């Protein structure tokens, strides 16, 4: 038998893959008391016959990313105490390989595995966050038959892939029967795998867990047809797999089923939303052109999202129910004209007429125009306000005023001067003109710029009044 490096070069595989295959082969040989395979040693016919038979059922080498995905799933809702040794046994890998995988998972921003002597590896995020995370990663696993086999093996459940698919088909039938809608095999398998994980987790973690939903939300969920579907499906799981799905897990599954329902609901048609995105893009580009506002790619993308987000309820109102009352704060006639012109543009008109056959109400035009108006205000580069604190207050009081101004979102440059008893207000007339605002407790100071008279008692009311004046000066200059 050649050495590991020669085999790896010949097959074009990493040496770690070859070591893994050798380890698996030697495990099989050990079970029947055969000699191990060693580089530079002859391989006899008995070894070849045994390994051809035993290893023919194995798939190809499992990638480290696949191992980490499955470890992520198993740690999210553990059904047993997962340790390094347990993962070694499951994957047939060395301790160093499993340590490398755990280290990779620990490099993430969230869901970093932490070892507990009582439970084994676990994530420290709240239970609800772990449930959402698990549901996402289960979607990534379901089309990998090799990983699915490992998942069922890890959970110590005695059923085949075919039985899993039969049960998930039952969910599709229930969904169609009670909701008169179709659910994809992709979603039904994900919900089935999640049900298995959560039920086994509930059996393993017996102590009281945090409540996921309030009593009020739970009661509302239980009235929905989706909950009835999950309830019936849970009974099928109990009969076929001999475990029970908890109430909290049923409620979470109902929530997932609701999101699936919305995606397939005619009221939330994906093609129409795609058209709304295209329309939003056209409106944004046209309005920016008409208003002569420069914007970078990131700003344009955010504007498009804002317009599309606002168009969705408009589209829903036009197609499914009448909404005629809108609350808004102010109007901007120029931007209303820009929005109206963008909708009348020949390049936009056909798509707009298709989505909104009766057009938009004036109030709806106003709401869209406000998005652009607010964006234009952000683009205006005002210079910092020059503020003079002209006071004889103690230093700590003046510092307090400066701290309040520094913490304001409005950029300011702060100057301080002390009022002398002998000072005449006319001495300040020329020097005060260069400031945008003067803060003083003296009522004898006169100037052409705004003056903010402060009380001798500094409190939150005074500070709120000051912040409001600063905000208005900055944006109304």
Labels describing this entry:
20 helices; two-stranded antiparallel ribbon; 4-stranded parallel β-sheet; 477 residues; mainly alpha; 6% strand; single chain; elongated; 61% helix; PTS-regulatory domain, PRD
How would you characterize the overall build of this protein?
The chain is mainly alpha-helical. The protein has four domains: 4-57, no CATH class; 157-264, PTS-regulatory domain, PRD; 268-379; 385-476, Rossmann fold. The protein is 61% helix and 6% strand. The chain is built from 20 helices and six strands. It has a four-stranded parallel beta sheet with strand order 4-3-5-6, covered by helices on one side. It has a two-stranded antiparallel ribbon with strand order 1-2. Strand 1 and strand 2 (120-122) form a beta hairpin. Helix 9 (161-179) runs antiparallel to helix 12 (225-241) and helix 10 runs antiparallel to helix 13 (247-264). Mean pLDDT is 78; it is low at 320-329 and 421-427.
Brief overview:
By secondary structure, the chain is mainly alpha-helical. It contains 20 helices and six strands. Helix 9 runs antiparallel to helix 12 (225-241).
Query: What share of residues is helical?
Result: 55-70%
Could you give the distance between the termini? 85 Å
Rounded to the nearest angstrom, the radius of gyration is 34 Å
Shape: elongated
Count the DSSP helices: 20
Counted up, domains total: 4
Strand tally is 6
Q: What is the average per-residue confidence, as pLDDT, rounded to a whole number? A: 78
- Which strand order spans the largest sheet, edge to edge or round the barrel? 4-3-5-6
Which residues sit in consecutive blocks of at least 5 with pLDDT less than 50? 320-329, 421-427
Largest sheet: 4 strands, parallel
What's the multimeric state? Answer: single chain
| Helix and strand run | HHHHHHEEHHHHHHHHHHHHEHEEEH
- Which structural category fits the helices and strands? mainly alpha
Beta percentage is: 5-15%
């Amino acid at each position: 038998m050649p050495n590991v490096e020669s085999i790896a070069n010949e097959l074009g595989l990493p040496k770690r893959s070859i070591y893994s295959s050798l380890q698996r082969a030697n495990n099989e040989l050990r079970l029947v008391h055969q000699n191990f395979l060693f580089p530079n040693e002859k391989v006899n016919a008995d070894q070849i016959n045994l390994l051809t038979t035993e290893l023919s059922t194995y798939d190809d080498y499992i990638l480290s990313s696949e191992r980490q995905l499955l470890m992520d799933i198993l740690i999210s809702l553990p059904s047993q105490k997962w340790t390094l040794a347990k993962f070694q046994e499951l994957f047939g890998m060395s301790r160093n390989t499993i340590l490398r995988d755990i280290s990779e998972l620990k490099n993430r921003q969230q869901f970093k595995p932490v070892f507990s002597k009582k439970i084994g590896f676990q994530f420290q995020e709240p239970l609800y966050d772990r449930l959402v995370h698990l549901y996402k990663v289960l979607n990534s696993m379901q089309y990998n038959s090799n990983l699915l086999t490992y998942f069922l093996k890890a959970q110590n459940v005695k059923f085949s892939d075919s039985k899993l698919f039969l049960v998930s088909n039952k969910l599709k039938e229930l969904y169609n029967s009670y909701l008169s809608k179709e659910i994809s095999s992709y979603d039904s398998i994900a919900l089935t795998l999640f049900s298995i994980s959560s039920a086994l987790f509930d059996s393993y973690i017996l102590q009281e867990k945090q409540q996921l939903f309030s009593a009020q939300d739970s009661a509302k969920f239980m009235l929905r047809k989706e909950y009835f579907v999950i309830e019936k499906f849970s009974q099928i799981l109990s009969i076929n797999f001999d475990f029970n799905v908890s109430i909290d897990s049923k409620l979470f599954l109902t929530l997932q089923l609701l999101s699936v329902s919305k995606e397939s609901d005619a009221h939330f048609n994906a093609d129409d939303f795609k058209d709304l995105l295209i329309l939003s893009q056209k409106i944004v580009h046209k309005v920016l052109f008409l208003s002569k506002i420069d914007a970078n790619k990131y700003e344009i993308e955010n504007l498009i999202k804002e317009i599309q987000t606002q168009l969705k309820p408009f589209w829903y109102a036009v197609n499914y129910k009448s909404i005629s009352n809108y609350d808004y704060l102010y109007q901007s006639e120029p931007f209303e004209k820009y929005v109206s012109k963008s909708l009348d543009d020949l390049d936009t008109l056909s798509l707009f007429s298709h989505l909104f056959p009766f057009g938009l109400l004036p109030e709806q035009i106003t709401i869209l125009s406000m998005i652009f108006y607010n964006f234009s205000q952000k683009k205006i580069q005002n210079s910092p306000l020059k503020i003079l604190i002209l006071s004889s207050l103690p230093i700590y009081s003046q510092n307090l005023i400066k701290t309040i101004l520094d913490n304001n979102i409005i950029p300011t440059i702060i100057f301080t001067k002390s009022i002398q008893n002998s000072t005449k207000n006319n001495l300040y007339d020329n020097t005060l003109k260069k400031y945008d605002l003067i803060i003083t407790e003296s009522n004898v100071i006169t100037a052409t710029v705004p003056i903010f008279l402060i009380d001798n008692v500094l409190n939150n009311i005074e500070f709120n009044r000051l912040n409001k004046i600063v905000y208005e000066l900055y944006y109304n200059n």
